């Protein structure tokens, strides 16, 4: 494409992360033409700076812990984790931050790709500033899908921007472990990176402003992760209010109510903000810097040609939920382009119902925290009649085989009127693998009476399902 060429597509997608890729793939499979516009790496945050590298950093520690928890196998663990090899494996999983493989997939899927910085320029129009300084003007016949995601938010703490803090990007791509790492924020990123870098040799101090970790999860989850971090030697400080930051030579100094803390790097993990500041939303009457307000088909309210998909709408800031939204939005775009009726009721092919009722999530700490649907607090706030059932996972036969001294908890939130599951949380080693069954039960609103017939194989950790049902029956 020359610097002055204009081109029209059925769908123009801003952002070629996993969300944008899936929107484009669905509409192309539906018979429409699509172009992806990306300024950085095709594949986005998850592939290079979030899910994939962070879990690669954590996996070695997890594997060693699993081996050490089994008498006999533990004797084979005679050394410490190879930090250089762990980082090398992380680099391989991110393909060395090279997106050639992702570009090849895009081309093979019949999707066009334009490199450059994209801005809306009024209705259905996107102007791209390319790396060579030229511009391209793209017009959408049917839809512009904004899939620009989110970025780390840096809180308004005096001096914090000046110390060049790590965000999750730097935390997952660092080439070596800092000797002392200060972590601000006790959510999933702060907890996961505290585990990861402590295991790789850093002295970690975790500062959480609130009085517990993982505040959006069941309290038992935060308590278990807190105990585990402290057992490993991570200095976790709850109720910590960071008031100022500065650099002295090669040190980062944080000022808190309790005094000063010094480290070599500081990771800020206190939340995200929408990447809508520089994408021209003001040209269509929207306020830059805010999450896009969308309906359940991911259509921006008041702009029937525009879709906000993934993190950019603030509904559920998780990679798998962005991909889910992309599939739903893509289906809605194709249906509308064909003049077909779009089903807007819950659980239709065109709506992101799971955003509200059945979002699965895993925190890859040790213990892991896997959850789906409503927590007990959310059920209470919603006013739904419910009952909470708990059972120790370590009591089932499969858990005693999986690890000596297995400790964990399963928590079920049950709708007492309909007798269906509203939510489940599992806390314990390797519980992420229990989550899909729980998600199916919540999405399918499987009656408790029918779940009695879903017999768990013996001896597996999945026997926890039977024990929860027995606890429910009393």
UniProtKB/TrEMBL annotation:
<dbReference type="InterPro" id="IPR004099">
    <property type="entry name" value="Pyr_nucl-diS_OxRdtase_dimer"/>
</dbReference>
<feature type="domain" description="FAD/NAD(P)-binding">
    <location>
        <begin position="9"/>
        <end position="320"/>
    </location>
</feature>
<keyword id="KW-0274">FAD</keyword>
<dbReference type="InterPro" id="IPR023753">
    <property type="entry name" value="FAD/NAD-binding_dom"/>
</dbReference>
<comment type="similarity">
    <text>Belongs to the class-I pyridine nucleotide-disulfide oxidoreductase family.</text>
</comment>
<dbReference type="Pfam" id="PF07992">
    <property type="entry name" value="Pyr_redox_2"/>
</dbReference>
<dbReference type="InterPro" id="IPR001100">
    <property type="entry name" value="Pyr_nuc-diS_OxRdtase"/>
</dbReference>
<dbReference type="GO" id="GO:0016491">
    <property type="term" value="F:oxidoreductase activity"/>
</dbReference>
<keyword id="KW-0560">Oxidoreductase</keyword>
<feature type="domain" description="Pyridine nucleotide-disulphide oxidoreductase dimerisation">
    <location>
        <begin position="359"/>
        <end position="465"/>
    </location>
</feature>
<protein>
    <submittedName>
        <fullName>NAD(P)/FAD-dependent oxidoreductase</fullName>
        <ecNumber>1.-.-.-</ecNumber>
    </submittedName>
</protein>
<dbReference type="InterPro" id="IPR016156">
    <property type="entry name" value="FAD/NAD-linked_Rdtase_dimer_sf"/>
</dbReference>
<keyword id="KW-0285">Flavoprotein</keyword>
<dbReference type="Pfam" id="PF02852">
    <property type="entry name" value="Pyr_redox_dim"/>
</dbReference>
<dbReference type="InterPro" id="IPR036188">
    <property type="entry name" value="FAD/NAD-bd_sf"/>
</dbReference>
